[in-house]
Amino acid sequence: MRILVTGGAGFIGSEYVRMLLGAPGGSAADVPALDPTGVTVLDALTYSGNMANLAPVADDPRLRFVRGDIRDAALVDEVVAGHDVIVHFAAESHVDRSIAGAAPFVTTNVVGTQTLLDAALRHGTSRFVHVSTDEVYGSIETGSWTESWPLSPNSPYSASKAASDLLVLAYHRTHGLDVVVTRCSNNYGPYQFPEKVIPLFVTNLLDGGTVPLYGDGGNVRDWLHVHDHCRGIALVQQKGRAGEVYNIGGGTELTNKELTGRLLEACGAGWDRVVPVADRKGHDRRYSLDITKISQELGYAPSVDLEQGLAETVRWYRENRAWWEPLKTASAAQAGA
Ligand SMILES: NC(=O)c1ccc[n+]([C@@H]2O[C@H](COP(=O)([O-])OP(=O)(O)OC[C@H]3O[C@@H](n4cnc5c(N)ncnc54)[C@H](O)[C@@H]3O)[C@@H](O)[C@H]2O)c1
């Protein structure tokens, strides 16, 4: 089976590629065997794409890397040919950036997805796996979202992801394309660009700096280790029913304040390092996923305990300064430019 992974040089996409190719040190034992004969990564290498994320599998002869943009229809058409499955991660993924400027979110997340769908139709791709987010559901005060919950996105990022989800499902209903959509909660783990809360806080703390806590710190997120997310996607790729949506959650809800407390403890720092900042515009209060469907249909259950996963993640950033220091330096230079 030949698999095309878009956004495979990003945080989650690269974990999927490392998992598919059985990267040394990865825990492939608990992953559904997809046994790809070839894996092509199509990635534009934006600020968050990084070839270093693929270093553990760089010498695998099954891996082919194509630097390119999913909005480039001619290139996408050429690359999609000959692949059995597309697993689509490529996206603009940071809410704060979407508040500062929504245009690349619409062009990459919506138009880029449509470009891929058209190529998949033309080439008879046998399965299109669309990786989405729980943020498309909006914010929920109590209870948890099932897959049939209405979409009510609040940020330009989540609105663009919701639009792409609907397009993917429309290509199934209209054209009969075999698609599956996954919606997952907040991911954490190694190789996450240090702008998202966990790697940002951990790297700031390891550098002796402070961390910015939004508003009253009471926003609740469900945390999912990236390895569990990718196991869930692999199950959906292999056994999910065409035209269906599957939530993938971690079952571990924390307020941002609780998460901050855990990260401070793991880094040996105190609350004097926390700087309260004005809340994010339109900040969703709580996300919570019901994962009954994927658990019952596909046998999914998260396996990484949050406490252990956070400790291992902090250790990874502590031991891999060479990975994140240049990224922070480049971001700081860009912000100052
Ligand atoms: N990080 C999370 O917690 C989370 C949660 C739910 C869903 N998701 C979804 O998972 C997917 C991956 O997220 P991530 O956290 O790994 O993001 P990321 O920002 O780390 O990676 C995105 C990758 O896509 C590439 N890319 C961006 N625009 C592109 C374009 N126009 N053409 C080709 N490549 C392009 C980037 O270079 C990068 O390698 C996204 O679709 C995101 O919406 C992420």
UniProtKB/TrEMBL annotation:
GO terms assigned for molecular function: dTDP-glucose 4,6-dehydratase activity
UniProt entry tagged with the keyword NAD: yes
Domain NAD(P)-binding: 4-313
CDD domains recorded: dTDP_GD_SDR_e
Gene3D superfamilies: NAD(P)-binding Rossmann-like Domain, UDP-galactose 4-epimerase, domain 1
InterPro entries reported in the protein's UniProt record: dTDP_Gluc_deHydtase, NAD(P)-bd_dom, NAD(P)-bd_dom_sf, Sc_DH/Rdtase_CS
Keywords: Lyase, NAD
One Pfam family recorded for the sequence: GDP_Man_Dehyd
Family: Belongs to the NAD(P)-dependent epimerase/dehydratase family. dTDP-glucose dehydratase subfamily.
PANTHER family assigned: DTDP-D-GLUCOSE 4,6-DEHYDRATASE-RELATED
Name of the molecule in the record: dTDP-glucose 4,6-dehydratase
Organism, as annotated: Micromonospora globbae
Gene: rfbB
